[in-house]
Design brief:
By secondary structure, the protein is an alpha/beta fold. It has 2 domains: about 210 residues, Glycoside hydrolase/deacetylase (TIM Barrel), CATH 3.20.20; about 90 residues, no CATH class. About 40% of the residues lie in helices and about 10% in strands. The strands form 3 sheets. Strands 1, 4, 5, 6, 7 and 10 form a 6-stranded parallel β-sheet that branches. The structure holds zinc ion.
Length: about 325
């Protein structure tokens, strides 16, 4: 249990916020709208809620560190939930948040591999069946058996998932070469979901108009890459592209980029990333390391900790 009262500043990360129990994807990991509403009321009553500008000034030493416990609300991955359910609530309660969509999704043509995985895992509960299906797809395509033991897994511990789920995720997120991963996921997605990718993309992601309207109404946008890759596994020139392309894309949508922050996709970055952020004069960057921001760590502005909303907050 994380007691936010003991934190100076807690940055909170949200992902899916939507009706889940009443939907087709009852196992999707996310938050019900009622819960979100309650949480906003709780924050309004007990905390100082910062917006991008307030937080940026604190991080870059232009204003004093707040005495009152404060929160900053961030929303990852560009889901249509953020326009349909989050945006109206924030407007109603006069709260501003930072949104981090991988810019590729706003074009509504494809589903990111990470999201294909979420929906596959939400629709098909049987992990053994999924693993068997991955083996079948692999064997059919590459004419040999998969050997999971030969693959390099850092470890199978995760804050949120059981071992089989973690095995499936890591395999299809970065252990296989990119082309193989994409092939297997596409087949697996078609088999489990049986849905048109473009149509589904329109359904689950923000559109250009959504982004424009949210921005015009005071919401902030930041960089979460173009494709939601694991940056620590990318060469430096590809990392730089993942940072520059979203800046150019936002400019096209008239979303302000003179001060812009980063949220590492999958929490993944390395020393090269930090160099690029400095070069591009990025305002600050958020990790997936759990923890508060206080006077001790505030100066590490490219490695700021966050809480996931799944870390039980009180
Ligand atoms: Zn993300």
């Amino acid at each position: 249990m994380v007691n936010l009262k003991q934190c100076n500043i807690a940055v909170i990360a949200y992902h899916y916020i939507r009706p889940i129990k009443k939907s087709k994807y009852k196992n999707l990991k996310g938050m019900e709208i009622v819960e979100f509403r309650k949480q906003l009321d709780f924050f309004k009553k007990n905390y100082n809620i910062l917006n991008f500008e307030d937080f940026n000034e604190i991080i870059n030493n232009k204003t004093n560190f707040p005495k009152k416990p404060s929160v900053l609300l961030t929303f990852d991955d560009g889901y249509s939930d953020h326009y349909n359910y989050v945006f109206p609530e924030l407007i109603k309660k006069k709260i501003k948040g930072i949104f981090y969509p991988p810019t590729m999704v706003i074009e509504n043509k494809l589903i990111l591999d990470v999201n294909k995985l979420h929906f596959i895992l939400a629709k098909e509960k049987n992990r053994d069946l999924i693993i068997r299906e991955i083996k079948n797809i692999y064997k059919k395509r590459y004419k040999k058996e998969i050997n999971f033991n030969q693959l390099k897994f850092k470890n199978l511990k995760s804050r949120f998932d059981d071992k089989k789920t973690t095995l499936i995720k890591r395999t299809l997120q970065y252990v296989f070469p990119q082309r193989q991963r994409e092939f297997i996921l596409k087949k697996l997605f078609n088999k489990v979901m049986n849905i048109d990718e473009k149509e589904f993309s329109k359904e689950i992601y923000l559109s250009r108009n959504d982004v424009s309207e949210m921005y015009k109404n005071g919401m902030s946008f930041g960089i979460h890459g173009e494709n939601h890759f694991w940056w620590e596994h990318l060469p430096i020139h590809k990392q730089e592209k993942e940072l520059r392309n979203p800046i150019n894309y936002f400019k096209k949508l008239n979303v302000g980029v003179s001060n812009i922050s980063v949220c590492y996709p999958n929490g993944s970055y390395n020393k090269s990333t930090l160099k690029i952020l400095k070069k591009l004069n990025i305002s600050f960057a958020l990790t997936t390391q759990k923890g508060p921001i206080n006077k001790k760590n505030v100066s590490l502005k490219y490695q700021l900790p966050r809480y996931d909303v799944n870390d039980t907050l009180q």
